[in-house]
């Protein structure tokens, strides 16, 4: 699969807030479909459809542990997406530097006020 095609599939899978929430849960550890259903007002088949999209995108894998079918997060596609986004860091970096400068000024002013009291 071409890298850009894979990125398309990754970002399409990540575009849905439920799928992002599922990934956030799986970042804490493996979980069954029932465990993943708990925080959502959604049926198990609906969650299973989201899991299938995530699995097809390579963002999760599923295996068996006795009676349970556990899902786990797979980092490869997210690492590729992150690497792609890093290419745009130069657009954000000046803003981060200005923010750092502003925070340092605020800390210095706060320290000065405390000394004056």
TrEMBL record:
Q: Where is the HTH arsR-type domain?
A: 1-93
Q: What Pfam families does the record point to?
A: HTH_5 (PF01022)
Q: Which InterPro entries match?
A: ArsR-like_HTH, HTH_ArsR_DNA-bd_dom, WH-like_DNA-bd_sf, WH_DNA-bd_sf
Q: Kindly list the GO molecular function terms attached to this UniProt entry.
A: DNA-binding transcription factor activity
Report the PANTHER family cross-referenced here.
SLL0088 PROTEIN (PTHR38600:SF2), TRANSCRIPTIONAL REGULATORY PROTEIN (PTHR38600)
Name listed for the protein in its UniProt record: Winged helix-turn-helix transcriptional regulator
